[in-house]
């Protein structure tokens, strides 16, 4: 993306005169007051500005918007006038509609924002003049300058309008090797991606990628445009695959993620290649293709190890543990999850600590090893307390409570199965107080290895 330097604005005399006048008030003014103000202005002009032309006097009487439009027409920029007028009408329509939805919407009319009017006047007229001469690259630069100027949350629709205009003009530029066309495709891809139209975004990013292949073009941050194209394509493919997986379209999701992996390899960027393999592995897991998923995810873990990227490695181990868990290989899954806990703790990734600890707790709970399950669920709970994440706190609290209940159940079962007077007295004493700590102190907990045989059958 090209960053253009700030341009010194040149204004005709009429607009310079109008610029000195304060903006008109937007409130309703009684007719009598307007007549009086007009007489005051006439008197002021007659006393202080003798010799001014009729047009110069009008600059003080008319609104800034009107002076801009009049000057465009007078200078022969009819297309610029038409485009500016259409933008102002759409601006007002959108502003009024937004105002109806929220009383806190404070956006001013375009005619009251003189800097924006100046910028539009300057670049629209320059673009029109350049287009008449067939200098399409200059047309593109002026329209792109406008798109950059309006690149903010409030004026995004104006930016998109000029992105579309840039795309149309870029098709006419023949002497830059296709760079402007490539950039225009990137902007259109972003436009569609932000609007949620991922298929259309992917088409533009694919064209962007194709046009930048084998080129050494760079943007203002010294990033290669081809790398930018690869990143944009991978992001869009991943979003598309997410939707496909939600709809259980596993084959289509895998197909598009394989394509993403090939693009990442072409970019010769190991981190990008690893990301592509990660999502591909998860897609194979969702499709219940565990063996393929394991192969892909181990390739991802190798790349993460080579890059010495602990966070990526932790994510790879977590995904591998999910595959092992789905295959019933719980012992191996536990080993990988313990590695995840160690890695995430050392990197202060508390959310990942909670996820891995919860997965470990689930596995131990399923195996009937409730002491271990309680240990990891408590670790997850304590971590969410530090995070102050209330929804996650409630979830881990429930897991921890269930594991503690299972611990108590095993102790009670042991008392009941003993069937002696001492055990009965302990149970009665505990029931009077209802303290789980007292029950655990009365009879030592069974080791986890012995709990499997007492696992409840539901």
Automatic annotation (TrEMBL):
It is found in: Cytoplasm. The keyword Cytoplasm applies. TPR repeats lie at residues 314-347, 354-387. Keywords: Cytoplasm, Repeat, TPR repeat. One of its GO terms (cellular component) is cytoplasm. Pfam families: TPR_12. GO terms for biological process: cilium movement; cilium organization. InterPro entries: Bac_ResReg_Asp_Phosphatase, TPR-like_helical_dom_sf, TPR_rpt. The keyword Transcription does not apply. Transmembrane segments: none annotated. Axonemal protein which is implicated in axonemal and/or peri-axonemal structure assembly and regulates flagellum assembly and beating and therefore sperm motility. This is Tetratricopeptide repeat protein 29. The lineage of its organism: Eukaryota, Metazoa, Chordata, Craniata, Vertebrata.
């Amino acid at each position: 993306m090209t960053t253009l330097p700030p341009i010194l604005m040149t204004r005709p005399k009429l607009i310079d005169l109008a610029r000195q006048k304060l903006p008109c008030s937007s409130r309703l003014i009684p007719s009598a007051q307007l007549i009086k103000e007009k007489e005051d202005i006439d008197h002021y002009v007659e006393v202080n500005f003798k010799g001014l032309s009729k047009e110069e006097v009008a600059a003080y009487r008319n609104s800034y918007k009107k002076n801009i439009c009049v000057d465009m027409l007078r200078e022969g920029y009819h297309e610029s006038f038409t485009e500016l007028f259409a933008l102002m009408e759409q601006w007002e329509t959108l502003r009024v509609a937004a105002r109806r939805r929220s009383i806190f919407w404070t956006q001013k009319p375009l005619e009251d924002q003189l800097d924006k009017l100046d910028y539009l006047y300057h670049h629209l007229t320059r673009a029109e003049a350049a287009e008449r001469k067939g200098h399409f690259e200059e047309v593109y630069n002026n329209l792109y300058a406008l798109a950059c100027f309006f690149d903010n949350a409030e004026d995004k629709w104006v930016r998109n309008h000029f992105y579309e205009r840039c795309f149309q003009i870029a098709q006419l530029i023949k002497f830059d090797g296709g760079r402007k066309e490539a950039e225009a495709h990137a902007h259109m891809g972003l436009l569609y991606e932000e609007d949620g139209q991922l298929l259309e975004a992917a088409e533009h990013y694919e064209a962007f990628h194709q046009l930048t292949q084998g080129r050494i073009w760079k943007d203002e941050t010294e990033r290669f445009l081809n790398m930018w194209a690869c990143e944009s394509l991978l992001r869009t493919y991943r979003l598309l695959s997410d939707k496909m997986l939600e709809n259980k379209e596993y084959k289509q999701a895998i197909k598009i993620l394989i394509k993403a992996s090939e693009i990442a390899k072409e970019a010769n960027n190991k981190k990008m290649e690893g990301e592509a393999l990660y999502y591909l592995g998860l897609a194979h897991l969702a499709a219940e293709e565990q063996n393929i998923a394991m192969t892909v995810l181990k390739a991802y873990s190798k790349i993460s190890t080579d890059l010495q990227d602990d966070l990526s490695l932790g994510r790879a181990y977590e995904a591998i543990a999910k595959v092992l868990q789905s295959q019933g290989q719980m012992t191996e899954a536990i080993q990988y999850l313990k590695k995840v806990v160690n890695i995430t703790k050392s990197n202060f990734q508390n959310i990942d600590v909670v996820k891995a600890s919860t997965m470990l707790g689930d596995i131990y709970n399923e195996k009937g090893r409730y002491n271990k399950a309680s240990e990891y669920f408590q670790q997850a709970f304590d971590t969410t307390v530090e995070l102050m994440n209330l929804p996650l706190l409630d979830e881990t609290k429930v897991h921890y409570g269930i594991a503690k209940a299972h611990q108590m159940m095993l102790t009670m079962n042991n008392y009941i199965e003993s069937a002696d007077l001492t055990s009965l007295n302990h149970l009665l004493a505990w029931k009077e107080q209802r303290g789980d700590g007292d029950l655990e102190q009365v009879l030592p907990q069974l080791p986890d290895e012995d709990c499997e045989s007492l696992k409840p059958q539901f």
